[in-house]
Amino acid sequence: MSSLQTNILGSTVFQQIVRSSAMFVLVSLILLWAICGAVVWRIDRAQTAGLEAEMAYGQEVYYGRGVEALVEEEIRDGEDLIWEDDLIYEMLDAGTYIWVLRDADYDVIAGFDGLHGEDGFSTQRLDHPDISDPVLVHRAVLRGGDSLNIGVFVDPARENTLGFAMFGTLALLLIVLPLSLITGFAVSKRVYRRIEDISATTAAVGAGEMEMRAPQSARHDEFDRLAGGINTMLDEVARLNSNIEAVSVGVAHDLRTPLSNIGGRLELIRRDKDDAAAVEEHVEAAEAAQGQLMRVFDALLRLGEVKAGSRRAAFAEFDLSDSIGGLCEAYGPLFDDADKTFRANIAPGLRVIGDRELIEQAVSNLLENALEHSRDAARVTVALHPAPEGIALVVADDGPGISPVDRDRIFDRFFRADASRSTAGNGLGLSLVHAIAELHGAEIRLSPDARGAELTLVFKG
Predict the structure, then answer these.
(1) To the nearest whole percent, how much of the chain has pLDDT over 70?
(2) Which of 175, 284, 335, 446 shows the greatest Cβ crowding within 10 Å of its Cβ?
């Protein structure tokens, strides 16, 4: 036996099919014999009740009117007291009762001499040259040692029912069970191979072959759906790995500049240690670089905190209109100083459930993004209003907008478009906005049809 067959026979799928098949056959046998047994019991009960009634009547006549009356009324066949063998053929066809009355010496007084029985009920064969059909016999000992036997041919339906039960048992054991096992082996073989394909893919990915994907067929069955789910997961893992690499490069880039500045200033302090004014200037520059460094760390920590959802405990209902209005008032002078037109249209009384500090952080990031990256003399607008999905906050400018090449990456950590590399920032602002939106079940999207950059934050109701 090959290793593949051995593995299939030992597989969970095949063992489960074997157990299911055995259980099916067992339950089928129990039901088969229960039904057939009930049919046989009803047949036996009906024939037994008939014999009991006949015996009760015979005893009533025997004790009430004597032997002669019983013989005349029930047992005599015309002129003959002893029945001939040929009469039994008629009784077999008609299904009527067979009688025999014997004396204390077991000699026949009247009836069929070939009918014998034991006290009570028993199944016997007639002493007949040609008839071997079983007979249900009821025997009772009468006064003076006489005995009365009454019999009836067993209903053929009883034997047919038992025969059907035996045939069904053999069919289940010799046909259904083997076919189930053969079918189970074939199904297990197919399932095993599909699982092996998926396992081989995951093993290859675990070994570093990140480009491997689980094969899919044209059937679109559950294995194809599983393979599709795994492939989607692997695509997401690949994307996350790429994002981690980009984040690592971004962190290195954003930390290298301030660290280099700090190192350079320390060298200058050593050089100009006798010049107090120069040392003061170098210290201030180093502190500025250190502040830039801490801002990167603070942004990363805040982003990790939001992604982990640990701030969800601070959720409470608050007036979003009042919060956004206060931010707009605070940022208005900054836009004026930058010679940019700033307009706010805030619908009153709009309330949401969330972390007020985080939402204000997200809106601040959007406003700072517009302040830093919009064109000179730009017009920047902020609008807060009800929307079909809930509450919409729109921050827009009339500049050149965001390049289509960069649209899908603006929420990635440390991503900065080419046009923004000359301005201050660390590429974490929109990533934090996106994370805060996800934490609140909100949606942040970039309008593809706007003239400039238009970002909409929708708090769903």
Answers:
(1) 78
(2) 335
